[in-house]
Design brief:
Elements: H1 3-7, E1 10-16, H2 23-33, H3 42-47, H4 54-64, H5 71-87, E2 90-97, H6 99-103, H7 110-127, E3 130-138, H8 143-152, E4 162-166, H9 178-186, E5 192-195, H10 201-210, E6 215-218, H11 226-235, E7 238-241, H12 243-248, H13 260-265, E8 269-272, H14 277-280, H15 284-295, H16 299-312, H17 317-327
Parallel strand pairs: 1-2, 2-3, 3-4, 5-6, 6-7, 7-8
Helix pairs in contact: 5-7, 8-9, 16-17
The chain binds hypoxanthine (HPA) and zinc ion.
């Protein structure tokens, strides 16, 4: 039934690699690194994944990533994800990671950077999956720290495809991070930012205007501001929407009530993504299938959104052309 959805050459633009940590690997890495988990079993971990909102998820997300210590841990994490992504028919992935969440635990830059970059190289040769790396800043921490972290990452600047902004959105407006995004832009590194997930439409406007981001992660609350919708639509700003994530974090009560159809009807540049698949009940294909079931979208609808993602990806032009041709 879903063979045709699997076959579409999908690009995943909104993925937190730390959010791909399945409970089985969490336990294996805890054993490897001598970390004690507050759970008895894999089933107990899964049972804890019942979230009220974004902050209640983030607590478990930061706790879970506490098992990641070495370069090999990050490599194994990403390779496990790439193997699942391949099964979903994903051909390009933009991995976001949160260096600050590792630095505060005493895990140096080298571990995530070198582990993830090695996995990205391996995914290209083993699975023909291309990738990009997005270094994200935590918006609920000091903007000065983000700037410092960006400068500390200088040896890897050439390996960073974009900077991002994530973590708890409410009461953490994006404009405070204008300086670090400007610094990145001056070095030719574009920006993306989470906005309008739990925060208001005004945060989308602010991320776009003050941070000059080229994509908005989530962005679903833009519908509260029709003038903004018109501007985003005219400018073809991509929204990396994550339907199963939004249901799990109660941005909407059910998928049937999700604003995705309204976003598309408003002419917005919508893409589909999984966000934190290990926590939100599914990867790219699950998100595609769930939308097919909830909205009755046709093959042409999915081709349209898959094309949007390929066009919005940080990807070599030659590869983009080849993948777009496979969609035609
Ligand atoms: N929103 C904000 N920050 C995040 C998320 C999310 O869904 N996942 C990981 N960090
Ligand atoms: Zn996200």
């Amino acid at each position: 039934m879903t063979t045709w959805l699997r076959a579409l050459p999908k690009a995943e633009l909104h993925l937190h690699i730390e959010g791909t940590l399945e409970p089985e690997l969490m336990f294996a890495l805890a054993t490897r690194n001598g970390v004690t988990l507050p759970y008895e079993s894999v089933e107990a971990v899964r049972a804890a994944y019942d979230f009220e909102d974004l902050p209640s998820f983030l607590g478990l997300y930061y706790q879970g990533m506490g098992v990641l210590h070495t370069q090999d841990d990050f490599y194994d994490l990403a390779m496990a994800y790439f193997a699942r992504a391949r099964e979903d028919g994903v051909v390009h992935v933009e991995l976001s990671f949160d260096p600050q969440a590792h630095l505060v635990r005493g895990v140096p830059f080298e571990a995530p950077f070198e582990g993830l970059l090695a996995a990205c190289r391996e995914a290209r040769s083993r699975y023909d999956i291309s990738s990009a790396l997005i270094m994200s800043f935590l918006r609920d921490r000091d903007p000065a720290e983000a700037l410092e972290v960006f400068e500390q990452a200088t040896p890897w600047h050439s390996a960073i495809d974009a900077v991002g902004l994530d973590s708890a959105e409410r009461d953490h407006p994006p404009g405070r991070f204008a300086e670090v995004f400007a610094r990145a832009r001056a070095l030719g590194i574009p920006g993306v930012a989470h906005a309008g997930e739990e925060g208001p439409a005004a945060y989308i406007r602010e991320a776009w205007e003050a941070l000059e981001v080229c994509r908005i992660d989530h962005g679903v609350r833009c519908l509260e501001d029709p003038e903004l919708v018109a501007r985003l639509s005219d400018a073809r700003i991509p929204l990396t929407v994550c339907p199963l994530s939004n249901v799990k974090l109660k941005v909407t009560d059910t998928l049937a009530e999700h604003p995705l159809p309204a976003l598309r009807e408003a002419g917005l540049n919508v893409t589909l993504n999984s966000d934190d698949p290990a926590y939100f009940g599914g990867g790219m294909l699950d998100n595609y299938v769930a939308c097919h079931e909830a909205f009755g979208w046709t093959r042409d609808d999915f081709i349209d959104m898959t094309r949007n993602a390929l066009q919005a990806a940080f990807m070599a032009e030659e590869r983009r052309e080849a993948l777009l041709e496979r969609l035609a």
